[in-house]
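Need the bound structure for pyridoxal-5'-phosphate, inputs here:
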Amino acid sequence: MEEPIYLDHNATTPVADEVWRQMLPYFGAGMSGGAAGGRSRQYGNPSSRHGFGRAARQAVEEAREKVAAAVGAHPSQVVFTSGGTEANNLALKGAAAWLKPGTLAVSRIEHPCVTRPAKDLRRQGWKLREIAVDAECRLDLDDLERTLAESPALVSVMLANNETGALQDVAAVADKARRAGALAHTDAVQALGKMAVDFRALGVDMMTLSAHKIYGPKGAGALIVDKRVELAPLLSGGGQEWGIRSGTENVPAIVGFGAACELLPGRLARVLQEGTGLRDRLEAGLKKMGAAIFAAGAERLPNTSFFALPSVEGETLVMALDRAGFAVASGAACSSASSEISPVLAAMGVEPSLAKGAVRVSLGQENTAAQVDAFLAALGGELSRLRSMAAVMAV
Ligand SMILES: Cc1ncc(COP(=O)(O)O)c(C=O)c1O
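Answer from helper R.:
Posting the output first, comments after.
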């Protein structure tokens, strides 16, 4: 059987060979040398004073410099976490703990790891306001401005949406927040590696990153924090990461995160050069099949296409495509058997019947035009099959 084709890079990416190579010594595995040769035993705890510990500390600090350099931040602004989810929770709950409860404004299209902690904060006296987006998934800046006039304290708006790929004008959001005396946070997990991301230029106070979306390992991320922001830790203990995030550092994953960030400029140059070529090829084929492309009118990530084919359930299509050898995502929440429609599409005002058909393709650096063509052919075949089955059932 042929290798399945992976078209779900917004969910996660494979670990790049170079990233894996740099991580290997820090597992400390391979008692007899192993795949990584003589340097395969760097398993020290970065808090230890001996040579093993110092080597691990040096590796963590080098990774910190690489992550900072990738986003125009200072290494002292990088707080390593277990991933994007923890960094988003830390940003909201950690900052809220130092502020007087006021209005917390988040967009209606945030990832659940922003919306859930935001909802939790209501129990601590915060007023939650969800800022609207238009039919193209673009934030309503006037709605934000009106909200900021209330009792502003904290704003969180993502840079790129994980489902539609739509980009937000986060610099404008940060500017409005600053003028209103509020702190601004952005979730840049999906943006990193697919567009230029610059912490200073965005003007936010906090920014979330995750390694596994940029060909790094799962289980590492960072919150980039302006030093003026005080954060209460979610995890207290040994005082690692300036006391903001206690717990022995995940050294191999952090090293991998640094290595993935170091590879970003080369990849980004290719992404910018190739532009939306592959995605346009995909969407031209999809439109011929009658697909509606969500957020097509917005500025979007170059790799993401979120679409629906009328009268075909997204979940059914995803399973059929999986059997045909193509890994894509559906727009439905997969946490329950009853497939809810995507809250992002609901926020955009998409008809539930169409939203139920949502399928996301997110391309990566290893995908080719031939793979896109093969996907379109398989999709066409599955569509005919599903529609003829539906016709038979209706008889
Ligand atoms: C926009 C966004 N934020 C946060 C996360 C969570 O990141 P992690 O998987 O590293 O916890 C994801 C993951 O899908 C995401 O797409």
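Comments: The radius of gyration is 22 Å. Confidence is low (pLDDT under 50) at residues 334-338.
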